[in-house]
Amino acid sequence: MNHLVKAIAVLMAATALAACGSGQNANNNAGEVTANSDMNASASSAANPFADAEKDMNDKMMAAIGSDTGQSWARKMIEHHQGAIDMSRIVLGQNPSGDVAKMAQEAIDKQTKDIADIRKLLKEGAPDQKSADLYRPAMMDMQQHMMAATGADASEVYMRKMLEHHKGAVAMSDVALKNGVSGALRAQIQKTRADNQKDAATVEAMLSGKSMDQAKQRSGSAAAETSAATASKGMPVPGTKTPEHIVHDVNNMGNMDMNKM
Q1: How many angstroms separate the CA atoms of 147 and 135, rounded?
Q2: pLDDT tens across 52-77, in order?
């Protein structure tokens, strides 16, 4: 009987030790998972130092509402350009390659000027949510592509995100142009569209291994080809006059001559 009691006691002690070991292993595993999660979070932050700027830009663009389609474009594009400025400042602090540093500084200078030009065209008025909603699909598509853009280092990540950023400006400008924005604001939209289309071509060339100077030459040629193709389809090319404008100018000249008689 004593032998049986001793055997049971030994078995219970062994079971308790095994349970303690399992608990210790579980705690260790949990600790490893937590540590790995923390490391992954840090890695994600290091891999994408632009995340906060991207989110801030998207939130402000979504909240920007004008009194009509053109004014909504203007207010959203100001936030769009500011996002590019913020991202460019971030990459300049990430020890970028020489060409990327030039690209970032050029983006800051160009977007700052563009914001000032657009601000001159702003008008006050009751916010029109429907006009702002026209841009939502283009903005959402841009945000998704920007957030998904990755690269081997901060310079490549920046370029890939800026590529989607420029494409987003082109898409938003297309929305405005298709919805009848006219006058000085239309001319600004056409300029913004052409500039971003050219910038997108430059970034694509740089991503393919071209220097910034080579990329600009290639993007210039691509822009010329695009303008030629646009003209061949009977569509207005930014910076040129449509037949309607020409007729209007001729009529004005005729009226001026009649007034002199």
Answers
A1: 18
A2: 999 999 999 999 999 999 999 999 99
